[in-house]
Amino acid sequence: MAGEDFSTIESGEKLVLITGSAKRLGAAIALHFAKSGYDVIVHYNDSKNEAEELVNKIKELGKNAIMIQADLTNELKQFLVDIINSDLVVKRGGIDVLINSASKYEKVEFPKVTQEMWDNMHEINSKVPYFMIQGLLTSLKSVNGCVINMVDTSYKYPWKNYSNYCSSKASLYNLTMSLSYELAPYVRVNGIAPGAIMFPEWIEDDERESILNQIPMEREGTVIEIAETALFLAEGPDYITGQIIAVDGGLK
After folding, report:
1. How high is the pLDDT of residue 4?
2. The domain 15-247: what is its CATH number?
3. What is the pTM of this model?
4. What strands lie across the sheet with 146-150, from one edge to the other?
5. Domain definitions of the chain by residue range
6. Can you tell me whether residue 165 is helix, strand or coil?
């Protein structure tokens, strides 16, 4: 790193980029960061109306926000160009927080998983975060930024009939650990492992009940609890890197 200067630039408001942030968990994180003083870059794929609504809410809070559309599995290079050249990044001089939240989740028995299903799952859950961080590394270093990867408790406690999903999140966990070594001290890299947060609509009632019965806190978690954890990792002690915080109510 000799000869490189990555001193913090204070030319704009702190800036967070959240992939998959038009709705659900990503949107909750975006709003929480905006309420805490951050400008926000909202990424979306198909959910344009939700992204527009979110951007309007953030602007009503007095913060700047833009929305950028991209299918990250085949438009990542152009997306990175659009991000780097956006007014918010240019004004700030970098990206303070990158949150890799875009994810794919599905239940498929092991014998039924095809190579195409494997590729699609690992593309968005593991490959995209890898090259997202790589492509934005200079922007992150320029303001001593941080990366937060949305992992999953399944990286450590995998579930039956989710081998494809769980292995993709295990890969993201290892990426988080590896880059926390490689990118220090200029960029901190941490992860959040949500537990039972916002069950998908297609999950069956008996499976939902089985999961909830294993949680010592005796309830489903909330998106605001994930958002609060993300903000802690962004704003908390700079000495925290290479950590995965499980927000799972004690689920084992």
Report:
1. 37
2. 3.40.50.720
3. 0.91
4. 65-69, 39-44, 15-18, 97-100, 146-150, 188-194, 244-247
5. 15-247
6. helix
